[in-house]
Every structure is written in structure tokens, then in C-alpha cells.
């Protein structure tokens, strides 16, 4: 259940709808053992992620999801619920990816998002940059992973570019 909600749906959401300080929560998304193993076999083939017997003898005492799989599950919720479907332009990256707790098959993850900053571009009036703190939370309420997202979002009504002196350019 959202801590607060956007006034506009994803298909009509623009930069102006992302207000600094607002928080949202979405989910759950389930963590399934076959997906944990399939992801890890392809992208992170360590025993703790692909071999239940070896994982049981390891430091986590059981199979755990790759951190990259966890981030992927979080990203799914981020795109499905938070990110605009009509004005998302690009992301220059993410910062401070952290894994705090193991994620296991059977877990149910929620996403908590807090808009840390939202600033219009100084050089391109048709967009703004939104900085979001993204936290993955398990069914016990524990933060299992986090990252800081940066997203370029189109503006609903871009301000007209200032006219340059000596030109007829708008």
C-alpha cells in the first residue's frame, strides 16, 4: 500500500509529479527458487545461489538470491509502479548499491521509494532530474537492499527557452 500516492497515473505522469520528500511503497513481489537458480546460473553462478545442498553448508545456511537478482526484482516494481511510462527519458546511472540481508526463496519483497531531490534541468527545459532512494524490504520489514536512482523525466509543459540577445530565436 502506498505511503502516499501520485495524483496522476503512470501513463500521464511527468517530472512535475515527482515532489521532493514524497514516499511510496509498492509490492509485494515473490522470490521463487526456480527463478533464483535460473538467474544465478546465467549471471552469478556461485554455489550459494545455484546449489541448495552446498548453500545449506555455507555461511548463509541455505540458498540465497544473487544480489543482482534482488536488484532486478526491485527494478521490476520500480518500473511497474513508480517510473512514468510516458516521460521517462533515460537514467545516467545508480549510486550506492547495497545488500544488507540475504534474500531467500519464499520471501516477499516490497519497495519503498523516497524522492530525495527533483530539479529541472538548467540546460534543457524539457526535462528534470529525479533522485530517488530505493529500498527493498522483506516480509519481516527488514531492508535487504538499496540504491539511489537517477532518472531524467520529461516535463509536462516545458518552459520556453529564453530568447538570446541579438537573435530572433525563441
Automatic annotation (TrEMBL):
Name of the protein: Bifunctional protein PaaZ
Q: Which superkingdom, per the lineage?
A: Bacteria
- As recorded in Swiss-Prot or TrEMBL, the protein's gene is named paaZ_2
Which taxonomic lineage does the organism of this UniProt entry have? Bacteria, Pseudomonadati, Pseudomonadota, Betaproteobacteria, Burkholderiales
Species for this entry: Achromobacter insolitus
Entries under Pfam families matching the protein? MaoC_dehydratas
- Name all MaoC-like domain ranges: 23-122
InterPro entries, A to Z: HotDog_dom_sf (IPR029069), MaoC-like_dom (IPR002539), MCH/BMMD (IPR052342)
PANTHER family with a match to the protein in the record? BETA-METHYLMALYL-COA DEHYDRATASE, MONOAMINE OXIDASE-RELATED
Amino acid at each position: 500500500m502506498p505511503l502516499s500516492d501520485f495524483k496522476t497515473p503512470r501513463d500521464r505522469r511527468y517530472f512535475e509529479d515527482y515532489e521532493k520528500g514524497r514516499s511510496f511503497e509498492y509490492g509485494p513481489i515473490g522470490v521463487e527458487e526456480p527463478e533464483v537458480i535460473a538467474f544465478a546460473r546465467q549471471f552469478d553462478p556461485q554455489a550459494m545461489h545455484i546449489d541448495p545442498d552446498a548453500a545449506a553448508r555455507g555461511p548463509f545456511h541455505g540458498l540465497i538470491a544473487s544480489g543482482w537478482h534482488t536488484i532486478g526484482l526491485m527494478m521490476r516494481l520500480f518500473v511497474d509502479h513508480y517510473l512514468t511510462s510516458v516521460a521517462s527519458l533515460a537514467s545516467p546511472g545508480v549510486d550506492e548499491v547495497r545488500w544488507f540481508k540475504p534474500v531467500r526463496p519464499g520471501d516477499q519483497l516490497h519497495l519503498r521509494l523516497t524522492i530525495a531531490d527533483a530539479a529541472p534541468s538548467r540546460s534543457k527545459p524539457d526535462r528534470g532530474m529525479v533522485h530517488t532512494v530505493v529500498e527493498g524490504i522483506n516480509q519481516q520489514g527488514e531492508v535487504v537492499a538499496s540504491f539511489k536512482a537517477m532518472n531524467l523525466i520529461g516535463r509536462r509543459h516545458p518552459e520556453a527557452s529564453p530568447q538570446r540577445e541579438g537573435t530572433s530565436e525563441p
